[in-house]
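Figure S7 source data.
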Amino acid sequence: MIQPIRAKTILNPVKQPDTWFGLRYNMNLYRGCQHQCIYCDSRSACYQIENFADIMVKENAIELLEKELPRKRVKGTIGTGSMNDPYMPVEEKFNLTGRALEVIARHHFPVHVITKSARVLKDLETLRRIHEVYAAVSFSITTTDDGLAKKLEPGASPPSERLRAMQTLSENGILTGVVMMPVLPFLEDTEENITAIVRQAHAHGATYILPAFGVTLRDQQRDYFYEKLDRHFPGVRAQYERFGDKYFAPARNSWHLEKVFQALCKDLGLKTQMPVYEGEKNKQMSLF
Ligand code: SF4
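Tokens for the predicted iron/sulfur cluster complex:
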């Protein structure tokens, strides 16, 4: 089901400091996500999204953004892509992300997009304009195996397409990299997988890779994930059940994977932390 809704606000403040992406504001233009990744944390009960497969389109989002943006005193990075993918298929019809980026470009704000879709390329020209201030696009990639990704992230672009899109962004001077999370225990936590992602990211113009060796599991989300494990990966659920109700299920040999990951990134010159927008910081420092 796709349904229009009216939002009260569109730019929400992010708790400071945001050590992952350096965000100041968060923007969700939709609710629910068509990519339907089986491990998605947004299904957790705490977010109170009744049916995550139903897509709510915030029909007044652009109007709100036009009002809210000029009132922001701090020019900080606007993040999008944490609770849903801004480039899921519905974006083709409503173009909310495309239109929001236009507004952001006009107001000269920095932006950070997380996506699993090659559809981001439709906004290449706008992202180029935003990058005069700062634009970063992070592709969420946890395997380079398109077949495995089809089971884990059924609605998203195959990783091979995401990587090609990354290459195009990089060739156009836009800051881009990989969010390698979650590395799923028993499915993706091998040295071969980690090194393949790092090498492919490097070959396709990534500047950074941010890893998380494990997956978070909570209430509703855990049940959904286990159901899908039963369907696609018989026997794997029992291995997860050993974690009980724990919030974090770590990858096997995380310390070893982390070591291999860090060494390879160093060799290839890839950053393992996000190069964040520093504009405000520089401005503040120049006052002293
Ligand atoms: S793309 Fe992101 S928000 Fe959408 S289902 Fe996958 S993990 Fe969840």
